[in-house]
Amino acid sequence: MKLTMHVNGREVTGEAEGRTLLSAFLRDALGLTGTHIGCDTSQCGACTVHVDGRQVKSCTMFAAEAEGAQVTTIEGMENADGSLSVIQQAFQDHHGLQCGFCTPGMVMAAAALLRDIPQPTEAQIRAHLDGNICRCTGYHNIVKAILAASGQPVAMAAE
Amino acid sequence: MYNFDFVKPATVEEALAALSDEDAQPLSGGQTLIPSMKQRLNAPSKLVSLLGIAALKGVKTSGDVMEIGATTTHAEVAAQATAYPALAALAGAIGDPAVRNRGTLGGSLANNDPAACYPAAVLASGATVVTSGREIAADDFFDGMFTTALDDGEIVTAVKFPIPQAAAYVKFEQPASRFPLCGVFVAKYADGVRVAVTGASEEGVFRWTEAEAALSADFSAGALTDLSLPADGMMTDLHGSAEYRAHLVKVLTGRAVSAAA
Predict the structure, then answer these.
(1) Rounded Cα–Cα distance for residues B35 and B212 (Å)
(2) Which end of chain B is more exposed for a tag (fewer CB within 10 A), N or C?
(3) Which value, to the nearest 10 degrees, does the dihedral of the CA atoms of residues B97, B169, B83, B212 take?
(4) Distance (Å, rounded) from C-alpha B198 to C-alpha B123?
(5) What are the φ and ψ backbone dihedral angles of A86, each rounded to 5 degrees?
(6) What's the gap in Å between the CA of B228 and the closest CA on chain A?
(7) How far apart, in whole angstroms, are the C-alpha atoms of residue A91 and residue A101?
(8) Counting Cβ atoms within 10 Å, is residue B152 exposed (0-12), middle (13-18) or buried (19+)?
(9) What is the domain partition of chain B in residue ranges?
(10) Which CATH number does A86-149 carry?
């Protein structure tokens, strides 16, 4: 079947089967490989994108369900001039990534959180990242990056 | 996963017609169905998405009853079910934020996972499950692990929750899956208290009637002191023994009563 949706503000069309997952459609049909497939079992969150403004795991949604929807991926997060967005820059400044595999999902999760709660507490950030797994950083620097992106001081008790 | 035909009707009638095909299955949020299809535990020839049916979505309250459409997501219930705070809190703690944006009330009930949260709320509330053909009392809906009173081709359309005077849900999360290792929903109504337990029994969600009687007489955690839940029929797995689960049910029931009172 042919699917049409709006991805990062642009109308796109691609071929899909019933079983085509949104993650596969974004990567294979549209070439948007910033959306990573980590576990493919909806646990790790590396494939997190926004569909109609809501954070979802694109490996656990059929592409056909996004027909006509507004989809935002990590490729849509940069500023119009190609520079890093506030959240992306904060991840770089605070070393919120090491290998970088989970980072697209982390950034998309952070963006969803900051839209709902512009100034979250550390506990709210950690709770919101429940479904995004990072095996490198131990999360501290990711939490610091999100605090910084929300305009808050990043001082945090050592654990 | 094996391929299938995907259809997304706009009305319940069209959905029922599409579901009359052999091997057709309804698809709601897909947070359980899609993983099970990836594992080839499930291979429908046709999936009928219910998410295009506007009539199945939304939260409305009239008087003492809150009616929630079957395809309302956990995140929507968490945000909109303000007239029933214990239910909103339960919905807001299922899975993780991304799962809550896809998973639905109707999907959870039709699946009846023995460790799902929603069945405990539906059973403890004495809710009514509204389907495409009839209304089913919660006490008659859940029929053992992954089994319900739903017939083939019948779909859940809404759930009517009587709003209690006081209620709370407390779960003990299995840290890897975040499903409840045990969860207890306590709801106090004018005509008595109902206690429903998920994650514990080999038969799926159940009511702990001895605790209901004790709490109806005295709605305090102390009323449970002399009770003990038999370990017979409780689940044993690598996360906990039957005895551990039976003990946990009592502890969590006490905590839920304290939280509600």
Answers:
(1) 37
(2) C
(3) 160
(4) 10
(5) -55, -45
(6) 34
(7) 13
(8) exposed
(9) 5-48, 55-162, 166-260
(10) 1.10.150.120
Q: pLDDT tens digit string along B170-223?
A: 999 988 888 899 999 999 999 999 999 999 999 999 999 999 999 999 999 999
Structure tokens at A153: 């001081």
CB atoms within 10 A of CB A154: 18
Domain B5-48 in CATH 3.40.50.170 = no
Take residue A22 and report the two structure tokens written for it: 């949104």
Residue A58 CB burial class (10 angstroms; 0-12, 13-18, ≥19): buried
According to CATH, the superfamily of the domain at A2-75 is: Beta-grasp domain (3.10.20.30)
CA distance A68 to A81: 27
> Which pLDDT belongs to residue A159?
47
Report whether A112 contacts A129 (CB < 8 A): no
Backbone φ and ψ of B156, nearest 5°: -75, 135
Q: Which CATH architecture has domain B166-260?
A: 2-Layer Sandwich (3.30)
d(C-alpha A38, C-alpha A114), whole Å: 24
Question: From first to last of its 159 residues, what are the pLDDT tens digits of chain A?
Answer: 999 999 999 999 999 999 999 999 999 999 999 999 999 999 999 999 999 999 999 999 999 999 999 999 999 999 999 999 999 999 999 999 999 999 999 999 999 999 999 999 999 999 999 999 999 999 999 999 999 999 988 876 554
Chain-chain contact of B47 with A48 (C-beta, under 8 angstroms):
no
**Where does residue A139 fall: left (phi above 0), alpha (psi -120 to 50 degrees), or beta otherwise?**
left
ipTM: 0.95
- Class at the top of the CATH hierarchy for domain B55-162: alpha beta
For residue A113, which residues of chain B lie inside 8 Å, CB to CB? Answer: 97
Instruction: Decide if B52 touches A, using CB distance below 8 A.
Output: no
Q: Decide whether B5-48 matches B55-162 in CATH topology.
A: no
Structure-token match 């199945």, residue found: B56
Mutate to test the interface with A, among B21, B99, B179 (most CBs of A within 10 A): B99
Give the pair of three-digit tokens for residue A151: 């305009």
> What is the token pair recorded at B216?
């109806």
> Domain residues of chain A, as ranges?
2-75, 86-149
How close does chain A come to B211, measured CA to CA in Å?
32
φ/ψ of A10, rounded to 5, equals -115, 140
HSE, side-chain direction, 13 A CA sphere, residue A24: 14
